[in-house]
Amino acid sequence: MKRNCLLFFCFLGAIILIAGFNFFSQNTSADTTGAVTFTVKISVCGNFEKEYGEDCDNDDFGGITCQGLGYSSGTLTCTDTCEYNTSQCVVGPSCGDGSCNGSETCSSCPADCGQCGGGGGGGGGGGIITPVTSVVFSDRAYPKSTVMLLKDAQIAASTIAGSDANFSVSVSGISGGNYIFSVYSEDNKGIRSSLLTFPISVTSGATTNVSGIFISPTIAVDKSEVKRGDNIAIFGQSAPQADIVVSVNSEDEFFGKTISDKDGIYLYNFDSSFVDYGIHYTKSKASIGNQAVSGFSNVISFKVGTKNIAAGLPSACGKADLNCDQKINLVDFSIAAYWYKRSLSVSFKSLEVERLSGDGKIDLVDFSIMAFYWTG
Question: Which residues, other chains included, contact 232 with Cβ-Cβ below 8 Å and sequence gap of 6+?
């Protein structure tokens, strides 16, 4: 068991470094698919530097003052969420108009001493407020979909996207340090998106904002086998009114286009007469004008043959559940670790085809699949 546990942590570390995880840093573009590039922006609220998405950060206002915001005078301050605090900004005429404006005192505005009094006394003591360390992830998923946030492969938080597909999910009360965060969404049929992963260095006492996320569409087919010449429906969910590109990989790669509806649902009927008999693979991606482009969805397969077979319901054991206990945990990793770099038995080979990558061997791809479906 010790050996298997050691293998688990070695494989998990290798998965993080090798098997498809993508690093996103501030204002950089990340290629998640080899074909689609999109930008995720990271800013840290509390590091005394005004960055993307922030009004201000401590005393850094980017040159903006109360007057720059349309007030006549006053002092602009910054909230702990890096937004303007205009409570000390003054509207209208100020010193010398014979009336109190804002926080005028005799020392700051002698002309108004009769109205304002002798100047404010010191404020109450007040306790020291400890800054909160948090990370916020935001932007697009699917309308009213569940968005899950994972921290180091464990579920940390969840939220429901709005009807416009926009979401914001956060985790707070953590210590500063290096973490691996992941986000995914589930559509209205319970189908999961592909996983977006972000290794992030969290600054203690600050809020790290990760924006520009566009979760990839979900994808499914209505037939596991389609009679050559008939159509196969490829469908899923994305953001509303998004341009959807569907790719079908054969000897050549075929592309089709459609548009998602107001609920983000899309449907593309693919004519199978364009491809040969055999197994084919399909995936999809979404875009909204020039604003954003998602990565590709998960890849799913279908067979072009001599008959039509409806796509079956998911296995009762579920993807990556090797011992069929409705959980994906160390037991499943241990089972897979035993067959790592070994020839698979006939019975386990069929299990690998059904619940893992289906390539007839156990490698890092299979461990990454188990890490994605991990329940603990």
Answer: 221, 222, 223, 226, 269, 270, 272, 302
33: number of CA atoms within 13 Å, CB side? 20
What whole-number distance in Å separates Cα of residue 42 and Cα of residue 38? Answer: 13
Q: Is 122 helix (H, G, I), strand (E, B) or coil?
A: coil
Q: Rounded distance, CA 367 to CA 340, Å?
A: 10
Angle at 95 between CA 89 and CA 97, to 5 degrees: 115
In a 3-state reduction of DSSP, which class is residue 269?
A: strand
- State the Cα angle at 232 between 228 and 235, rounded to 5°: 160
- Helix (H) / strand (E) element for 236: namely strand 231-237
307-366 confidence digits (pLDDT tens): 999 986 455 567 888 876 667 888 888 888 888 888 888 778 878 887 888 888 899 988
Q: Is 86 helix (H, G, I), strand (E, B) or coil?
A: coil
Tokens 């090797």 locate to 322
Of 19 and 118, the structure prediction assigns the larger pLDDT to 118
Residues in the chain: 376
Does the pTM exceed 0.85? no
CA distance 44 to 118: 41
Paired with 214 in beta bridges are 140
H or E, element range at 3: helix 2-17
Residue 43's nearest CA partner among 180, 135, 129 is 135
Interhelix angle for 364-372 vs 330-338, to 10°?
170
CA dihedral (339, 341, 345, 347) in degrees, to 10, reads: 50
In this structure, what token pair is assigned to residue 191? 């189908």
Q: Angle at the Cα of 203 (from 200 to 204), degrees rounded to 5? A: 135
What CATH fold (topology level) applies to the domain 220-310? Immunoglobulin-like (2.60.40)
- Domain boundaries along the sequence of the chain: 1-20+318-376, 21-48+130-214, 67-115, 220-310
> Which of 173, 170, 175 is CA-nearest to residue 202?
175
Fold of 21-48+130-214: Immunoglobulin-like (2.60.40)
User: Under DSSP, is residue 74 helix (H, G, I), strand (E, B) or coil?
Assistant: strand
